[in-house]
Amino acid sequence: MDISAILKIINITGTPQRVLLELLENGPQGAGYLAKKLSLPRPSIYDALHTLEERGLVVSQEENGKSVFSANHPDRIAEIIDTSREKLETAKEEFSTLVPKLLKSPRITEPKIQMFTGKEGCQQVMRDILWYEDIETYTLWPVEKMLDVLTPEFMEWHNKKRVKQGMSLKSLRKAADKTIVEKYPFMDTKPEDLREVRFLPRKIDFSMSYWIYGDKVAFVSAGKELYGFIVQSKEFVEMMKIHFNILWEQANS
Q: Is 163 within 8 Å of 235 (Cβ atoms)?
């Protein structure tokens, strides 16, 4: 990522970006010289300089009765990036509290079926689960295969978020996954994990997983196809719960 892309992220684009890059590359200059160098009218240069000064990216000083502008220390860009990150995190947290209310609006239409592909798409399916709080959820989960697809780092993060949001979990696993906790402790069934696990008979093998939550069911393929999809339907959720409960009764603790 170059400096132009970084400036774009912090909303320094167009003429302000061109002016700042010129000052960073060639040092202090007057507004008139900048206008000629960049082939832009003086009013546009002054507007850009004003924008940059407001954000502390450019400083001015008088030399022989004329204003000369120079780029501030590069640390200022780093400070703006840090501030932007903090604001985005705050906005993300506040927005998450608004989502349930927004979803109740009659003007919001959420697709009944959403499709995703690739590893990032499968992770996006999993992120959707974390919009909920204080609910019981249910999974059919081939642990080792899903860790290969979603990565242990992602699943450890996902598990922490799930627990923090008070989402309990009943999980059906393959018999072959009984020792997986030794390698990945975050897949354990300690009380603080809010997770109850049962193991299906060894003859039952599968690579597709599902996760029932709220009025949705998320599916992720851990096979070669590498895709996921979310179905939103109360009737479908009830049917999948029947399927889950039948398998749960056949499984071993």
A: no
C-alpha 44, offset from chain centre: 37
Render pLDDT for 114-165 as a digit per residue (tens, 0 to 9): 999 998 999 999 999 999 999 999 999 999 889 988 999 999 999 999 999 9
Delimit the domains of the chain by residue range.
Answer: 1-109, 113-250
Parallel, antiparallel, or unpaired: how do β-strands 29-30 and 66-71 relate? antiparallel
Q: What is the CATH number of domain 1-109?
A: 1.10.10.10
Q: How far apart are CA 59 and CA 132, in angstroms?
A: 47
* Multiple choice CATH, 113-250, 3.40.50.720, 3.70.10.10, 3.30.950.10, 3.30.870.10: 3.30.870.10
Q: Which residues have a Cβ under 8 Å from the Cβ of 21 and sit 6 or more positions away?
A: 3, 4, 7
- Cβ neighbours of residue 138 closer than 8 Å, sequence gap 6 or more: 169, 170, 171, 211, 212, 213, 240, 241, 244
